[in-house]
Design a protein that fits this description.
- The protein is α/β, with parallel strands linked by helices.
- It has 2 domains: 173 residues, Rossmann fold (3-Layer(aba) Sandwich); 77 residues, ACT domain (Alpha-Beta Plaits).
- Helix content is 30%, strand content 24%.
- The chain contains 8 helices and 16 strands.
- Helix 1 packs across helix 2.
- The chain binds ribulose-5-phosphate.
């Protein structure tokens, strides 16, 4: 089975599988969006079926909600859950302080609301997403459709006053039409090259009328599980300030059961 997975998929599977062990009976859990988060959802479904794990789960997108129901998770809204013990989600980039760029999958708004309504956020990722400085991955910014060109111009103008290399923004498309988020908004992808001060940029972007939220997650996550293609995963924990690192090994052959018993 593992020969059917690419090395990147194996790394994502390993990260998701390790992080799923942090989910305990009775927890209220936020579920991220994207291919890594999808492995987590499948693994949690497997634990529910095999161990009788009882959790309630709040998805960050319609896609994740559909997958969660398919694998047998008890999916509720954030309004119903009110507050969460733990959110586990992927990222597009992360740095040494666990500042993140998210939103490559278009779910950044719900992802940020769910993560900040959680006691703890764990990032699941492959090693290729670790960077010294955020910004090589285009920063997604969710904007309301009304007057989006004016919002885009204002965003590009304020980028001149902050510590970034580039200023060009692009409306995300879905074929011939703008990509539309679960909240009915558009996304601008900002080609910044390098972000000198993620916290400042996040605050400044959210001042622009028409901007709903941006994909910078600063001081939200304090643990990351980095998966590798050989099934090894590395947990970096920044909760006590200095990083504490531990390792675990995942049986990649078990990946087949995730599909076999659905
Ligand atoms: C979705 C996200 C994802 O977490 C991010 O894009 C990573 O995706 P993947 O796990 O598929 O690499 O932020 O909005």
């Amino acid at each position: 089975m593992t020969e059917l997975l690419t090395p990147i998929d194996q790394a994502k599977y390993a990260a998701a599988h390790c992080a799923a062990d942090f989910v305990k009976d009775g927890m209220r859990v936020g579920l991220g969006t994207g291919s890594t988060a999808a492995w987590l959802v499948r693994r949690l479904g497997q634990r529910v079926r095999a161990e009788g794990l009882r959790i309630i789960a709040v998805p960050t997108s319609a896609r994740t909600a559909a997958l969660g129901r398919e694998v047998g998770l008890n999916i509720v809204t954030l309004e119903e859950a009110r507050w969460l013990d733990l959110t586990i989600d992927g990222a597009d980039e992360f740095d040494a302080e666990l500042a993140l760029i998210k939103g490559g999958g278009g779910a950044l708004l719900h992802e940020k609301i769910v993560a900040t309504a959680s006691d703890q956020m764990i990032v699941i990722t492959d090693a290729a997403k670790e960077v010294k400085h955020l910004g090589a991955f285009p920063l997604p910014v969710e904007v309301i459709p009304f007057g989006w060109q004016a919002t885009k111009a204002l965003v590009e103008e304020i980028l001149a006053a902050v510590d970034v290399l580039g200023r060009k923004s692009t409306l995300r498309m879905n074929g011939a039409n703008p990509y539309v988020t679960d909240e009915g908004n558009y996304i601008l992808d900002l080609a910044l090259g390098r972000i000198g001060n993620p916290q400042q940029l996040s605050l400044v972007l959210n001042q622009v009328p028409g901007v709903v939220e941006n994909g910078l997650f600063v001081d939200i996550a304090d643990q990351v599980v980095i998966g590798h293609a050989d099934g090894k995963c590395e947990l970096r924990d920044l909760t006590s300030g200095a990083p504490e690192t531990s390792f675990a090994q995942v049986d990649l052959d078990a990946a087949q059961n995730i599909f076999r018993d659905l």
